[in-house]
């Protein structure tokens, strides 16, 4: 799908467009946080860091189909290992799902990661999101570890999946 690209985005320029996208993707946001997207959700997308990381490790892209924002991707570089990229969120507008755009986006991310010398992609997926998990597994991600809810967490059981970057990515 050659009309799909990843465009770097920032809160200063793109906050309102990301809020609009997350409002369109209400189904997933409600599943994840229990309510529709708001400013705090978007701030979190741009600012929330995994343990031990700082905001300069975060990379944010819009998934563009031509001039339209079809989705967003957030990555933490160097988490959990120095040569890992942790995909914190990949979210498409429902109107753009199920047509291979996610597959194209992962191909683009794998290539970017390989060019940056990254060895592994990782992410966690909610147990409550079996379609999401089957997407990642079809893309070659495998079980890394279980990440059950803890008393301090948001109550979701998750699994962490990993993908080893290859020479031909
Ligand atoms: C998961 C997601 C990024 C995949 O992108 P996509 O363009 O829809 O995927 P593709 O068209 O390349 O592949 C289709 C597969 O994606 C998954 N998928 C399709 N629609 C989905 C949906 N509404 N929610 C979750 N996964 C979905 C299914 O595994 C589907 O395979 P199937 O048709 O055999 O069931 C996208 O569907 C999405 O944004 N879903 C909601 C948010 C989400 O679950 N993000 C992942 C969090 S870990």
Describe this structure in words.
This protein has 169 residues and is α+β, with helices and mostly antiparallel strands. It has a single domain, classed as Aminopeptidase (3-Layer(aba) Sandwich), CATH 3.40.630. 33% of the residues lie in helices and 31% in strands. The protein has 5 helices and 7 strands; from the N terminus they run E-H-H-H-E-E-E-H-E-H-E-E. The protein has a 7-stranded mixed β-sheet, with helices on both faces. Helix 1 packs across helix 3. The structure holds coenzyme A. The site of coenzyme A (COA) has 18 residues, from strand 4, helix 4, strand 5 and helix 5.
How is the largest sheet built, in terms of strand order? Answer: 1-2-3-4-5-7-6
Roughly how many Å is the radius of gyration? 15 Å
Q: β content, as a range? A: 25-35%
CATH C-level: Alpha Beta
What's the overall average pLDDT, rounded?
Answer: 97
The total of beta strands comes to 7
Structural class: alpha+beta
- Identify the CATH homologous superfamily: Gcn5-related N-acetyltransferase (GNAT)
The CATH topology: Aminopeptidase
The ligands found in this model are: coenzyme A
Number of domains: 1
Question: What can be said about the biggest beta sheet?
Answer: 7 strands, mixed
Low-confidence stretches: none
Tally of helical segments: 5
- Tell me the distance between the termini: 16 Å
Helix content: 25-40%
Helix and strand run: EHHHEEEHEHEE
CATH architecture: 3-Layer(aba) Sandwich
* Overall morphology: globular
GO molecular function: acyltransferase activity, transferring groups other than amino-acyl groups
Protein name: GNAT family N-acetyltransferase
Domain N-acetyltransferase: 4-166
Pfam families: Acetyltransf_1
């Amino acid at each position: 799908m050659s009309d799909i690209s990843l465009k770097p985005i920032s809160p200063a320029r793109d906050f309102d467009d990301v809020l609009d996208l997350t409002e369109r993707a209400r189904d997933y946001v409600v599943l994840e946080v229990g309510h529709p997207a708001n400013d705090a959700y978007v701030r979190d997308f741009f600012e929330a860091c995994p343990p031990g990381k700082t905001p300069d490790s975060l990379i944010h892209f819009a998934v563009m189909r031509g001039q339209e924002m079809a989705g967003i991707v957030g990555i933490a570089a160097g988490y959990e290992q120095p040569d890992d990229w942790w995909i914190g969120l990949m979210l498409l507008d429902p109107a753009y799902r199920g047509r291979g755009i996610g597959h194209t986006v992962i191909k683009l991310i794998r290539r970017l990661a390989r060019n940056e010398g990254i060895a592994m992609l990782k992410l966690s997926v909610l147990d409550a999101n079996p379609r999401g998990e089957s997407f990642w597994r079809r893309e070659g991600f495998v079980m890394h570890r279980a990440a059950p809810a803890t008393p301090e967490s948001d109550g979701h059981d998750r699994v962490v999946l990993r993908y080893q970057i290859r020479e031909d990515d």
